[in-house]
TrEMBL record:
Annotated signal peptide: none
ABC transporter domain: residues covered: 2-241
UniProt source species: [Eubacterium] hominis
Alphabetized PANTHER family for the sequence: AMINO ACID IMPORT ATP-BINDING PROTEIN, METHIONINE IMPORT ATP-BINDING PROTEIN METN
Full protein name: Methionine ABC transporter ATP-binding protein
Amino acid sequence: MIKLQNISKTFTVNGNDVHAVKNVNLDIQDGEIFGIIGFSGAGKSTLVRCINLLERPSEGSVIVNGQDLMRLDAKALREVRKKIGMIFQHFNLMRSRTVYQNVAFPLKHSKLSKEELDKKILSLLELVDLKEKKDAYPSQLSGGQKQRVAIARALANDPDVLLCDEATSALDPQTTQAILKLLKQVNEKLGITIVLITHEMGVIKDICDRVAVMENGEVKEMGDILEIFAHPQAPITKNFIETASNVNKIYELIEADSEITKLKPGEKMLMLTYANVETKEPLISAISRKFHVDASIIFGNVEVLKHSPLGKLAIILSGDKADIEQAQEYIVACGIEVEVLKEC
Ligand SMILES: Nc1ncnc2c1ncn2[C@@H]1O[C@H](COP(=O)(O)OP(=O)(O)OP(=O)(O)O)[C@@H](O)[C@H]1O
């Protein structure tokens, strides 16, 4: 649905070139929620603004629904842009207009009758759960409510795509959750493809299907979120995942020779990683029963990503050496990744 091919964007500031985006290739599928994550200055906003040509790439092509946007004239581009809604961190509402008038604004040249327009605007306000605020002004709304108005306004032209530029960054965690839930609903109910940029891995984890990780204008890693969370490759990705989970703390504890990570002779400490594992067998009791080893859990983190569990569990196995080896082989045979953290 959206193909970004060899996209680069260079700004020239006081004679100096700033390479904001460098040779990015992305293929965003119809109906998915695609996340782009990166620290401040990574080039996320510039890249996402290239999708609707708010920023014209210095190089490369932007193909949306088979159309090369760089080749369109101004009129054709205006039509295409109507089908690409956008929301922003600071909402960008018109302060002197009511909620109703803000949502009505993109429809000002619409061919709908007055009654049809009214019906449409009210149904959008109903979708974002703000019907009762239709006559309020933006200054009378909370941040979450303002973003709801912005979402309703972005949906007014029945877009195929919704671009979200740090849409939850100005909101508290609870309001963030509510807005992400609404975006998910918009994606599922209306079939709208969402491209979302953020600096928070928690946001990616909550609603995205796939993610691209950006650093210094480049995409360093891209893939299905379950795969990225289970097997991050690039250092920047690992860094982001650490911020969204506390499981890596175990490495610090081992390094610091913390009391909970001390082993007795013959014991072995393992990190188990399981993603999308079919077996529902109670693993810990199974290894105790089958191999006569004791397993104590010292650290764990289980997430549900896209309805699949992704777990990381640090355990200490104690027992006979040969039994521990067999238990480890059994765990691997169950489709669980095993990393030996420490042995004594
Ligand atoms: N209009 C502009 N003129 C000059 N430089 C720009 C312009 N827009 C962005 N940049 C530069 O391009 C780089 C990438 O900026 P961009 O806003 O795309 O990053 P970002 O990942 O979205 O960061 P943030 O989350 O802070 O917005 C930065 O170095 C920024 O200073």
